[in-house]
Amino acid sequence: MDSTERITDRLTARALLLDTQHAAVDRRAAFVIPDGTVYLDGNSLGALPRAVPDAVADVTTRQWGQRLIRSWNESDWWSAPERVGNRIGELVGAGAGQLVVTDSTSTNLFKVFVAVSRMDPGRTRVLIDPDSFPTDLYVLDSAARLTGLTVEQVHPDRAADRIAEIGDELALVVYSSVDYRTGELWDLAAITQAAHRVGAFALWDLCHSAGAIDVRLDDDGADFAVGCGYKYLNGGPGAPAWIYVRTEHQERFHNPIAGWHGHARPFGMERDYDPAPSISRARSGTGPMLSLLSLEAALTAYDGLSMADVRARSLSLTGFFIECLGGLGIDLPLATPAQDGRRGSQISLRHPEAYAVVQALMVRGVIGDFREPDLIRLGFAPLYVSHAEALAAAEHLSHVLRDKEFESEGLARRATVT
Amino acid sequence: MDSTERITDRLTARALLLDTQHAAVDRRAAFVIPDGTVYLDGNSLGALPRAVPDAVADVTTRQWGQRLIRSWNESDWWSAPERVGNRIGELVGAGAGQLVVTDSTSTNLFKVFVAVSRMDPGRTRVLIDPDSFPTDLYVLDSAARLTGLTVEQVHPDRAADRIAEIGDELALVVYSSVDYRTGELWDLAAITQAAHRVGAFALWDLCHSAGAIDVRLDDDGADFAVGCGYKYLNGGPGAPAWIYVRTEHQERFHNPIAGWHGHARPFGMERDYDPAPSISRARSGTGPMLSLLSLEAALTAYDGLSMADVRARSLSLTGFFIECLGGLGIDLPLATPAQDGRRGSQISLRHPEAYAVVQALMVRGVIGDFREPDLIRLGFAPLYVSHAEALAAAEHLSHVLRDKEFESEGLARRATVT
User: What is the value of ipTM here, to two decimals?
Assistant: First the structure.
């Protein structure tokens, strides 16, 4: 037995041990993972939960097809945004009545930006991470032009200092819990405390956290939060997003897209808008029920799980993958911090031919994704990715790099989707 | 044979004749209509097209479940908003590249209101129908507060005069093609001409027209339009909505919800927003693919149909229903104009106990809906409702009224859904 074989044997044994240790979170049986696939892109589109196809078929053929308009009442489609919102709330540390599933993340960001701009006219400045997912930057710039807010891009590790400098002109800080490219986890509780010290609000973007990180919105003082439904929450492509408005801010939260679903009496068909005295005021128009109820079915995969355990398995997976990289002699620069407390649920590696490397991995059945300019991004969805797969992915990556498989023809760059 | 029997026989024969005359539009076989149901609520939630369940199952189990993230490219989920938009465009007289499926009607209205407010700062006034579906009023009021626009509610039959009086301060007029309660069809081409004479824009709300009326957006000069996907277009509950921006206005159309899906290079992940040089700039965040692709499958029911024929069948259905009311001696006041040119695809009748009458009809398998304060609203979806059913509905209504079935217990008022 040579040294490589010994290392592989050792890592294999370790994967087995870790999968056993974290078996409580193993929901693999609740998901469809195609044969021969190691799926490390659940941070872009979560895998299909087995509960979804039947649930969606019931919505189409029975609820819609047979019961027709009556299902708005009979199947309580009307309250699904709040019902599913409360379930997501349990996964991100939000008590009931503060989270509603509606629209897209972009639209929900817009609602918060405009609502905040009206809360205290003396506060006109907003801080945002320049490395935010671009839609956060775009929508904030647009909302700022509309409302008179002034935007300043400040990296999270400088945020607390800058917040103190700006002081009482500050209206809002906008930070993502996990950086979508590097996978770095930021201490939003600390940034939020700094914001609160000067009387400002904090908006958390949890797109790359919800369902993988043990977020504590209520306990950590978040004022607002948004997130999507199609990454770790596995709601399906373009599943609707959600918005959190802390109870104490709801009365002052004026949704600029004041659609009839946010009205206190939506069926009164009144001429004047009177916002619902609840999180329902964050709704706008009619939501996409097939996609929304797919998300509801998907969330059953989390039934009985504690987010602390989910987080522990996530950290174990990414930590073990880093261990495998070392063991197999893969020396690509890590864009993701190696320390547990600073890591989300993904590992990003730098490579000048990152796009082609991702394509070569896909040929081998390992699905990750590429992010500009040089990132190989591998997400470890804690409910269905195993430590054995983390090792397999590292081994495939080792072969791709050793044999320069990324130089094959047909792996040229083209557009991909987040 | 008594007189009632003779009348019924005559109407039955007439229904048969009209169904034969308008058979070209009969797509009943393409829809699921539950046994024993006369479905006259397709103007609220269209019936299930038979093509939908398999199409949605393919999206969930194969595209999402098996192909995972790759389907964004392989199944071209990315371009679905424009692809489905172009198909809807064919049904409302819009040439390709002007219509995109995205968000809800409320959100799309908001985009137009804010975009128009920035087009010509000298024009600050907006006219809207006080009898608009409430969300139009609510969202316009909200957008007006945000942008400085001034809103005036003017009934459509007074619109042309008022437009001329206001003149060059007018920015926009907002009118619905069909009144959602009374079913009255307005001459939006004439209102639009009046708006254009003073240099203002016209926004058409086509929620209650698209798929039933032969709308001609391009030919009749509409500047902007919005509509939902779940009424006559049969996309399913909460199917995403659509927005039309005439080609010549697209370059000046600045979508306030400047999400990454509207960017010229969405995968460039750039820090600055550069709107797509096309209707795609009206997109914001990621759309709900299950609901969107359900809508795409639903639209195949329109394949091979001319909207002129669809409109002719719709008018025949509602006209014949009025004839049945007369023949059967039902003398409830018509809220809907009897003249063909002034009628959408629904008939609304007034009754002081309208809610209970609608419930009593439902007990008999005739599904319509109630609208405040006193309207029995019956929609005639031209693709799957027959003249024979129009007669059957009138006969059921006759019995409900004659025997005062609406006074039965258990038919008390409760919330229903549009």
Answer: 0.97
